[in-house]
Amino acid sequence: MIIGIIGLGLIGTSLALSFKKEFKNVYLWGVDKDNKVLDYLSERKILDVLGKDITRLRDLIGESDYIFISVYPSGVVDVVENLKNYVSEKVIITDTASTKFKIMNYMNRDEFLRKLFIGGHPLAGREVSGPLGAVDNLFTGKVYFLCPAFEVSEEKVEGLRRIIEKINASPIIIDPEKHDEILAFTSHLPQIIAYLLSYVSVKEDNLSFFGSGFKDTTRISKSDYNLWLDILKENDIKIKEALVEFEKTLKDLIENLERKDFEKIRHIFKDSREKRLRLRD
């Protein structure tokens, strides 16, 4: 089995480590535009072939069974367009971007790609970006969303599902628009709030006075901000809807505080606690 990975950051390199761990007979090739990343991975011999230019791997691309694209959401389409001339019809092309609606709209409009492309998004990550943060168990126990294009065969969907299950993740088929709506609340909104909380709270005269609660809450604000700006652009409508709902709740809290209606605030806190207790850690 030949698997290609384009974009060897945290997710891409973790995929490579996971495939190497779980599959005995897998041949891995990878592409990244960063020479430092390529040097780092070359020294560790995680992949069999590394390159900076897709066109120089055209023969290997044509023989590949799976190609994972792990770049910023806005870059997925360009990568796929560069691959189109080299892939065979047997290949499954997928991505790992945390937005799906715009990407899948593009794929479904293309007569060739809508037979090959399955959108993907593992609900996995760390605040440490790049291949240095990669681990071989990043996807263990994690949900892995799949959004098949309109004409992808059941055989291809099942093939990718088996690959995902082999790295101990849980594949779930989902509508792309529904995916972006859910993730706006469960991933994108929390990330924005973490950034803003750090932005508002951290000052030169209080750096030594933060407890574990603040550090736990804002841990993800150490993530790659360029990636999150890209996600904001790609899922702007759904994220705005989530922010508006959050803003309304925040305004209600402020109004209750001004009226000294602590009983209503208590109910908000109580409901919040009960909702959080329903989540599995």
Automatic annotation (TrEMBL):
GO terms for biological process: tyrosine biosynthetic process. InterPro entries: 6-PGluconate_DH-like_C_sf (IPR008927), NAD(P)-bd_dom_sf (IPR036291), PDH_C (IPR046825), PDH_N (IPR046826), Preph/Arog_dehydrog (IPR050812), Prephen_DH (IPR003099). It holds the Pfam family PDH_C. GO terms for molecular function: NAD+ binding; prephenate dehydrogenase (NAD+) activity; prephenate dehydrogenase (NADP+) activity. Keywords: Oxidoreductase. The keyword Oxidoreductase applies. It is an enzyme of class 1 (oxidoreductase). The keyword Oxidoreductase applies. Its EC number is 1.3.1.12. Transmembrane segments: none annotated. It comes from the Bacteria. Coiled coil: none annotated. Residues 1-281 form the Prephenate/arogenate dehydrogenase domain. This is Prephenate dehydrogenase. The lineage of its organism: Bacteria, Pseudomonadati, Dictyoglomota, Dictyoglomia, Dictyoglomales.
